[in-house]
Amino acid sequence: MPSVQPRTEVHDVVVIGSGAGGATVAHVLTGLGVRVTLLEAGPMLDPYAEFKEHRWPYDYDHRGADEGGRGYFGRGKPFGFFTTTSGGWELDGEPYTVADDTGDFWWFRSRIVGGRTNHYGRISLRFSDYDFKPYDRDGLGWNWPIGYDDLAPYYDKAETFIGVVGSREGLRSAPDGIFHDPPPPKAHELLIQRASRRMGIPCIPNRRAVITRAINGRPACHYCGQCGRGCLTGSNYSASQTQIFPALETGRLEVIDQAMARAITTGESGNVDGVVYVDKRTGEERRVRCRVLVLAASACESARLLLNSKTAEHPDGVGNSSGVVGRYLMDTVGYDIGGTVPALEGLPRYNSDGAGGAHLYMPWWGWERQEALGFPRGYHIEIGGGYGMPGIGTFGGSARRAGYGVAIKEQARRDYGTRVAFAGRGEMIPNERSFCEIDPDVVDRYGIPVLRFHFQWSDHERLQARHMRETFNELITLMGGEPQPPGRRDAAGISIGGSIIHEVGTVRMGDDPRTSALNGFCQAHDARNLFVCDAAGFVSNPDKNPTLTINALAWRASEYLAEAMRSGEI
Amino acid sequence: MTTTGETGVTRREVLRQLALAVTAAGAGAFNVEAARVVHALAGEARAQPGGYSPAALDAHQFRTVVRLAELIVPADDGGGSAVDAGAPEFIDLLCSRNPDLRRLYVDGLAWLDAATRSAHDRTFADASDAQQRGMLDGLVAAERGDSSSPDLRPGVGFFNWVRMMTVDAYYTSPIGIADVGFRGNRVLAAYETPREAIEFVTRKADELEL
To answer: Is the interface score ipTM higher than 0.90?
Structure first.
């Protein structure tokens, strides 16, 4: 262990990471009177400096192609210049490796207060009751140590606080929550809905973390459709604006930004007593001592920190006596198909920006006849289309079809708004060949050993992706359109592992300390004052985007932790 | 062209409504955002055509890019040309900040001049309108694999770049955005899909027997 300057102060609770998990912990604990010190590997967020909401492409001399047109060379920001995305699948000086003998894996990291919630899609879906007990359904994977009833009160609290639009539908695969009124469907979505109904697929109001009435001093959505750019009025959920900034106002939260955690230290009886981190501004190593440590650095980063923290009491890494830390890495099965629908040519122009993202989506509909489908588990369908703001690349296809001249303009006027897209987001079954471990040969710019990934889809996922392809082709064909094959994907047609940015499950929870690292309250079996409150604790990765469940699990863990601290148990 | 004026009004309205929303929320620091937009507007004024000195391309190369932009996206009843939209300046500016892109243009323009010379004994910029169109027709034919035209395949890659960036410059300008009829980027109190749009898709769904 390198030489450090221990501060004498012992912080009550240190949280590492300020995304959906860490910010929820900071918000809930400070609200319960607990003092929190939060380490974030990136800088503090300044929405007014960083968000590009309401900007036009021509406000920038590069029009959105990014500095020197690097967007044209595939070196622009992930998801485009205008998004508030911080970080990406590659970070300067912070490599990771992928083992030679497996499929590819991309690891997305954000280093900023609020993490990936600043730009994420904000789709907010509760797990179904059956999602917590997948093994009982089909004998695959493992059950969660908790059930829907355990988490439902915390879904309630999370939805009430962050605000989610949606409608009550009574579908078992998509449990209803506490919703703000959803915006009405867009025109192209009504056509899609007609096609989906023909196929017996429900197409219901989307569930996204956007508010349509003012709450907690946050004004209602103003329907510019630019959630991904960051919302200056805070009318959608981002961990930074919704939770960290208000928690700072309580006076009980201290944020130490630009702090890259290197290792956890432990004391007597194997409990955690501090964290060593690199102050990125000075390069100096520092240590904070703490009574309780909460990891919320993102699933793989939390696993990396545990594995890099080998102490006398924890020779295989803190919290890893089971050996499961790093194992059972999952992403979401992604399969996307777009298509041009001539029936939408001539649709009257209108402002279809709306509340950001789609106003409708299709929850999984096959859960009652799973055996007949030939693959386990399910997927939901996200839909795209409408009259988006023109930008770099919008009319490249029209131009190629037309050649040159006035024909390009005519083609663009015909094509505009006729493109629809379907994105399947499905459940991956955890498997033994998908995991991360410490690469013995590579360190990052801070000298911290990096992760090496192993990732393999199985036939379960390949068969599911095939079903997605058939479904989307049929939807587009029913609308009279021409399906176009998806973009980035692996040989089997599935998205590359990690590219959907739903990586979960590397520090899984369970009842048995021999086969799991955490209990149902996100508390380490091996160290009672250590919690992991990001998606690392996930036992499975249902077709429900993980963020809302991270919020709910972190909320539940925080209340449990506050009570344990009050009673003196911790 | 009234588009710029209209866009200015729209943005002022966005600002005003945003200011109201932010004030209502009790948040501060709005003046920073307002100042930023004022800067952006000033930058736009500077970028108006006329008086531009190319930074990466020489005078002949820039003149050639201007002519290409005019041919690729000409003016018509629906709006001005890509030159009106600032496409040549956009291309030159990015070339000035990206050596790879500049190389691509310098080499591509040299190829175009050489190919035009071998066909018509003139540079592309000095060729007649019909000769210039003939060259572009040949490039499009080559791109589509039509072998009946003179083989201009070596220039297809460059033509794709010029066309892509010209088209991008047009549709990211106020006139191009107005041309396709984008109506968004506004602050609304409520979202609504217009009745005529709903009726349109309902009719189409009926026709498709959905």
So the answer is: yes
